[in-house]
């Protein structure tokens, strides 16, 4: 019996793991190939698709999805772009660090990577809205005005969240 994506999604929202597995099996390969085309890295492409399905399962009762296939591809595209941005920022950050270090000092580089990992973990611990605004500002390189417009909030609110995130993160970098 060929069940529609919409029906499988409804069943998944009712905690039907088999229906979710059918949805996964139906779309996994196409999403993987789509991610691979964008990321050019097999492991990263698999990770992105796994994240998409993990999020779909964990938020299945909250999400209001009208077109499952469109949702899956849009979410996969967003995750791929996020991954590419993160990789670009990491590369830029590492290049600047190498220039700063000048020589190949292993101890300094290990400390730098540990600090970078600590910072990334602490960013994930920020309150949801603060984290979102911080990432939009620092990773997506949006202005406060652009962020305010996209989130339908005031620029003062954006400034507040960025200030709070920097205060919390600054303590992290100094402590580690």
Indicate the proportion of strand residues.
under 5%
Structural class by SSE content: mainly alpha
C-alpha-based Rg, rounded: 20 Å
Looking at the chains present, what oligomeric state does this protein adopt?
Answer: single chain
Would you write up a description of this structure?
- The protein is mainly alpha-helical.
- It has two domains: 5-103, RNA polymerase sigma factor, region 2, helix turn helix motif (Rna Polymerase Sigma Factor, Chain: A, Orthogonal Bundle); 108-169, Arc Repressor Mutant, subunit A (Orthogonal Bundle), CATH 1.10.10.
- It is 81% helix and 0% strand.
- The protein is built from eight helices and no strands.
- It has helices at residues 5-13, 17-39, 42-58, 68-101, 106-125, 128-138, 144-151, 155-175.
- The model has no long low-confidence stretch (mean pLDDT 83).
Sum up the structure in keywords.
mainly alpha, sigma factor activity, 8 helices, RNA polymerase sigma-70 factor, 81% helix, transcription regulation, RNA_pol_sigma70_r2, 2 domains
